[in-house]
Amino acid sequence: IRDRVSTQSTGFFLSLPSMAEASVKKGSVQTFGRKKTAVAVAHCTKGRGLIKVNGCPIELIQPEILRYKVFEPILLVGREKFNQVDIRLRVKGGGYTSQIYAIRQAVAKALVAYYQKFVDEQSKKEIKDIFLSYDRSLLVADPRRCEPKKFGGPAARARFQKSYR
Predict the structure, then answer these.
(1) Which DSSP string do the residues of 94-145 spell out, in sequence order?
(2) What is the torsional sign of CA 141, 134, 131, 61?
(3) Measured in Å, how far apart are the chain's first and last C-alpha atoms?
(4) Quick check: 45 and 28 in contact, CB under 8 A?
(5) Cα three-residue angle 12-18-23, rounded to 5 degrees
(6) What is the largest CA-CA distance in the chain?
(7) 42 with 87: CB under 8 angstroms?
(8) What is the pTM of this model?
């Protein structure tokens, strides 16, 4: 019985194409953006310009005040660069603001990676230079994290007030 099970399972796994082969056939790249504890994963494929965040169009992102932050990569390089790709994003963790910053980073990195892999190096370099000259955090993650609290005080660095009497 064991021999039969092992041959069946190995035969099954050998018939499946690997994830790398599937992404090359379909023409997709996967990137991520981070801010504090928020993580946004962008899946960029050849398409017609759709950008969706957790299944919702990017135009409906809340809060409204921070919506322009998400549109920055699109406004910087122009909508025509995004018209040939579809980007689907999944966002988890953090607060509203951190998620917005993670989304904008993931979108910018996804476009650069897509152009590098499927278009040409020259246009990828142009896009990358535009993003870096505007704001480095569009492509490079911010390493700052919350410092853990220590004993002897109410916060990470603050100490309890000293009393002599």
Answers:
(1) S-HHHHHHHHHHHHHHHHHHHHHHHS-HHHHHHHHHHHHHH-GGGTS-----
(2) positive
(3) 81
(4) yes
(5) 140
(6) 81
(7) yes
(8) 0.81
* 54 secondary structure, DSSP code: T
Q: How crowded is residue 76: how many other Cβ atoms within 10 Å of its Cβ?
A: 16
For the chain, 165 residues long, give each residue's pLDDT as a single digit of tens. Answer: 555 444 454 544 444 455 555 555 578 999 999 999 999 999 999 999 999 999 999 999 988 999 999 999 999 999 998 999 999 999 999 999 999 999 999 999 999 999 999 988 999 999 999 999 999 999 999 999 999 999 999 999 999 999 998
Residue 27's pLDDT is: 85
Partners of residue 38 on adjacent β-strands: 35
Tell me the three state secondary structure of residue 35.
strand
pLDDT at 160: 96
Residue 71 in tokens: 């549109």
| Per-position b or e across 112-150, b if 16+ CB within 10 A of its CB | bbbbbebeeeeebeebbebbeeebebbbeeeeeeeeeee
Q: Is 71 exposed, middle or buried (0-12, 13-18, 19+ CB in 10 A)?
A: middle
Decide if 147 contacts 157 (C-beta within 8 A): yes
